[in-house]
């Protein structure tokens, strides 16, 4: 069984979000949640919520299909970060100039699966 969760327009740069996602890719879902709970990076909180959402989506999918659900069997089969839209802002600088500030956003996707699904 496979379940997906997507968070779009996160106000964290894709480079910083990728550092956090790389910590948990391929790990068991419970282990990934424990790692993210104590990670120091600012992007760890939205990624934690996203992994928890993917696990909840798997639980709902299993209930809908009438399958037995075991949270310990879930692992993160896919996790990636794409770049979202960039908000462009301007900061006044010396001698009438303006400096551009890019406020980047991210689209984060997490897919959890069971071991049987990975074998197929």
From TrEMBL:
<comment type="function">
    <text>The globular domain of the protein is located near the polypeptide exit tunnel on the outside of the subunit, while an extended beta-hairpin is found that lines the wall of the exit tunnel in the center of the 70S ribosome.</text>
</comment>
<comment type="function">
    <text>This protein binds specifically to 23S rRNA; its binding is stimulated by other ribosomal proteins, e.g. L4, L17, and L20. It is important during the early stages of 50S assembly. It makes multiple contacts with different domains of the 23S rRNA in the assembled 50S subunit and ribosome.</text>
</comment>
<dbReference type="GO" id="GO:0005840">
    <property type="term" value="C:ribosome"/>
</dbReference>
<dbReference type="InterPro" id="IPR047867">
    <property type="entry name" value="Ribosomal_uL22_bac/org-type"/>
</dbReference>
<keyword id="KW-0689">Ribosomal protein</keyword>
<keyword id="KW-0694">RNA-binding</keyword>
<dbReference type="InterPro" id="IPR005727">
    <property type="entry name" value="Ribosomal_uL22_bac/chlpt-type"/>
</dbReference>
<keyword id="KW-0699">rRNA-binding</keyword>
<comment type="subunit">
    <text>Part of the 50S ribosomal subunit.</text>
</comment>
<dbReference type="InterPro" id="IPR018260">
    <property type="entry name" value="Ribosomal_uL22_CS"/>
</dbReference>
<dbReference type="InterPro" id="IPR036394">
    <property type="entry name" value="Ribosomal_uL22_sf"/>
</dbReference>
<comment type="similarity">
    <text>Belongs to the universal ribosomal protein uL22 family.</text>
</comment>
<dbReference type="Pfam" id="PF00237">
    <property type="entry name" value="Ribosomal_L22"/>
</dbReference>
<protein>
    <recommendedName>
        <fullName>Large ribosomal subunit protein uL22</fullName>
    </recommendedName>
</protein>
<keyword id="KW-0687">Ribonucleoprotein</keyword>
<dbReference type="InterPro" id="IPR001063">
    <property type="entry name" value="Ribosomal_uL22"/>
</dbReference>
